[in-house]
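Regression test attached.
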Amino acid sequence: MKNKALWMLFSLFALMLLVVAGCSGNDEASSEGDSDTEKAAEGNGDNTFVFGRGADSTQLDPSKVTDGESIYVTNQIYDTLVRYKQEGTEVKPALATEWKVSDDGLKWTFQLREGVKFHDGTDFTAEDVVFNFERWTESAEYVYYGYMFGATEDDMGGIIEKVEATGDYEVTFTLSEPNAPFLNTLAMPPFGIASPDAIKKHGEEYFKNPVGTGPFVFEEWIPDNKITLSKNENYFGEVAKVDEVVFRVIPDNGARFMELQAGSIDAMNGMNPQDLDTAEQDVNLQIIRRPSMNVSYMAMNTQKGPLQDKKVRQAINLAIDKKKLLTLFEGIGKPAKNPLPPSLWGYNDEIEDYGYDVEKAKQLLAEAGYADGMELTLYTMSNPRPYLPQPKFAAQAIQEMLKDVNINVEIVENEWDAHLSATENGEHDMAFLGWTGDNGDPDNFLYVLLDKDNAKKGSAGNIAFYKNDELHDILKKAQTELDQEKRVELYKEAQVIIHEDAPWFPIAHTTPPLAVSKDVKNYIPHPTGSEPFNHLELK
Amino acid sequence: MLNYIIRRLVSLIPVLIGVSILAFSLMHLVPGDPARSILGEKATEAQLEALREELNLNDPYIVQYGRFMGQIAQGDLGNSITSKEAVIVEIGSRLPATLELTLFAMGIAVLVGVLAGVIAAVKQYSWFDNISMSGALFGVSMPIFWLGLMMIWLFAVELNWLPPSGRLSNDIELQTITNLYLLDSILTLNGEAFVNAFRHLLMPGIALATIPMAIIARMTRSSMLEVMKQDYIRTANAKGLASRLVVFQHALKNAALPVLTVIGLQFGFLLGGAVLTETIFSWPGVGRYVMDAILSRDYPVVQSTILIVAVIFVLVNLITDLLYTLFDPRIKLD
């Protein structure tokens, strides 16, 4: 009896293991990958750069993702037609060596680099560019294509009417309207050119078998654990100085920092603010701040009540002590005076911020006829955002400060989704919001957030509902102006108007810190949130 | 007994249907939109709508549930909607990680917990009893994220004895077969990988073991105390049997049932994934996987993983029930 029972138990346990093993039986792909890595890893020695981060990539097909962690990796594997310069968001040649635009701004012709090979050995030609762009119009899943080029259900191409191979190494885009930010948009990592052969070969599985032309070649992906890349010896640009790059997932911020201290990783993002001091004092570490490409602001609803008056909006700008407010950012925020972050070309540094001056604020309010004060609502999201780490405390601080000028603020706190729909519908007097730039073009901030075209209830990017025809003309002109110098001037002028009309109280640009081992040289973080690692060196 | 097992396995079916309905409705009741989580906050309503249509999220719930169950019936757990990967493949790399950690942690917990409980009971009110039982209270109340971080700080950063987190160092190569790294390194005769994997397992294993260990120790102690007061123990002692024999053969066997229940339950819970431990020690297990899926509203992943975990939980409980008959022959399952 006892033996029988034991036997039964054993078989049940085996059954349980079978359930587990049944699940893992399908995991052949990763074990195949393992043997490949063995080859790649041999002889690499210690020249491996390990980057620690909080979450895994979702897919390695950049055209389908919106999360920074996926883009971080694909930015190493793929090239775009043009790339951002190492510092700032101006573009430089990449897969395209030169380009020209027709006078009407509708035809963009790109000369492509010859002799470039995809990691799978196939040649890169104009047909491949056409293939990629056509692929991106096939489904709503290609989210950035749809978003940046204005695709709709009926017109999946958006403003791109046609993409043609006009030669083996020449591609011509025909647009339905002139679009000056087009070039900056093409530099966005989601528009990395993938190998058509690999896409056809892997089909549904392509997202985990990425093939591009970039400085690093994909080797292996162990989900929730690590992604390994090896250097592309045949890269047309600067060949990487490290042999291997490993992206490791270490979800807890504190644990990740200790991994860095212990030396098992070389760099990390997503630091706890309280670890900053320790890191700064550690002789083995360096803190590198990523230039900001975002802005947080308090929008004032220019269509409602006392806030229709410019003087009231200016007074509110004067009555808030920005420096004090910024302490809530725990060292990761720089005060904002413009809607544009300073890392973008076109930033107007000549503008002087309103400054903190309660007396002047009171005076302006008196001139506007509100000496006795007023009641205003301030809508805030309940959860932290990358550009605003403690929204509720920020709201309370502003509430206190505005009491000094007799403005009574009622705070309305909502979950993120509810906050978005309330503010898009203009329910607020004042509201917190922020923006992270997409393509590094000023149009992506100023037109999206402050033009009258985007002040439509229900789908507003411009939640100040600020409508200024003069500004509109400038922004529209800048969209079609193809001379970069002239665009810079137009955007500087636009910022002067916005400053004067004060539809916002601009709060901050956050500069997220990266902690990097002192052994790493030449780590230059890019404002867009990720950078190719081919420039960096290990000591 | 075979009949009993078959009956229990058959009774799994209604349990799983119940679990699937629960998992399905809970996920769909929670506010949030998978399309939004895939496309990000900047997507337009038109893009969202198009994607919802592509993912069949606009169908009535009953149709979606029917489709899900239809797939399950054919043995297809579906694909993750964020990563597009087959759920079975994704779980396949995480479940063994969780299993390895759980087995290791439960091994420690049972060994130390039972031993401490027995000694504490036999030497009631001694210094050992006092210290181990306050230690157990401490263990139950310890926030695991704090304990974990302190362990990493002490053993990895300050003393440099153990690797801070993860399952295997970057420079170690291991051919995976079962994805249980210790087992794989034995199967491939890879001594270096075995040592490395074992060193990675130590800290998360001990951290995860603290709570079950404490519960088991306290349960063993109280159960043993009860048994030690029984007449037959007095008789055994009076017969002059060696006290070790009395404690381990006569008393422990009779005190084992409640302890076994606790062990079974704890084991089942841990197999469902230990989110905190997995997060702090970067352990790529089921707990974190489901957690991420819940946050991104990845319906197929959450539903299928819950089903698999439910099956395992039921199996563990069944094994526990069968073990009762080993410890107490009076228990008849049929």
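Expected vs. actual: identical. Chain B touches chain A through 79 residues (CB under 8 Å).
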